[in-house]
Design brief:
alpha+beta, 3-stranded antiparallel β-sheet, 3 helices, about 30% helix
Length: about 180
């Protein structure tokens, strides 16, 4: 698979989730809610996720608080494939944009580079403000030895390619992208 095909495949996986599942679900939830509501609400002090930060797809306040996570059910179907990405060998199996696991041979990745990537795509500084739709952010990351599990939220496909660059710059030569278990 060449670079253009790889980018197209990843973009299709992202668009299938965000455009066919996440955005319509947010629109339905917002339309039927009589209370103030907002998409992609961030929370802190969450156990088990990177920096204790995670976002839900939609939240509603009112007499009671409700948070909703839209679980992906459409998976772009394709046979597992291999690709070279900037001198890093990738094995790619079908996955949901909101449930991605990246496995690699190194125990750790460059902490400062990963933190910069996370801060940018989680939008720590709230620079991407939603106008009632999605904000283009990741929703969570779990960093373990030899694996990063992600809910890529509404982030564009560029976010994943930037993460692959972080891995490559950390010395990762091979990575497997697939569903989180």
């Amino acid at each position: 698979m060449n670079q253009e095909q790889l980018h197209e495949r990843i973009k299709k996986i992202r668009d299938e989730y965000v455009e066919r599942e996440l955005e319509p679900a947010i629109a339905r939830l917002s339309a039927k809610s009589p209370n103030p509501n907002r998409p992609e609400v961030k929370f802190g002090e969450i156990d088990g996720v990177y920096k204790g930060l995670a976002a839900v797809d939609w939240a509603e306040s009112g007499p009671e608080f409700h948070a909703t996570v839209v679980a992906g059910y459409v998976r772009v179907s394709f046979p597992p494939m291999t690709a070279d990405y900037r001198q890093m060998s990738l094995e790619i199996a079908p996955f949901h944009w909101d449930s991605l696991s990246i496995e690699f041979e190194k125990d750790t990745v460059g902490q400062s580079r990963f933190e910069q990537w996370f801060d940018r795509w989680f939008d720590i500084d709230d620079e991407r403000v939603s106008d009632g739709g999605v904000s283009g952010i990741i929703h969570s990351a779990i960093v373990e030895p030899k694996r990063i599990s992600l809910d890529m939220g509404s982030a564009p496909s560029d976010a994943l390619f930037e993460l692959l660059d972080v891995l490559r710059e950390s010395g990762v030569k091979q990575a497997r992208l697939g569903p989180s278990e």
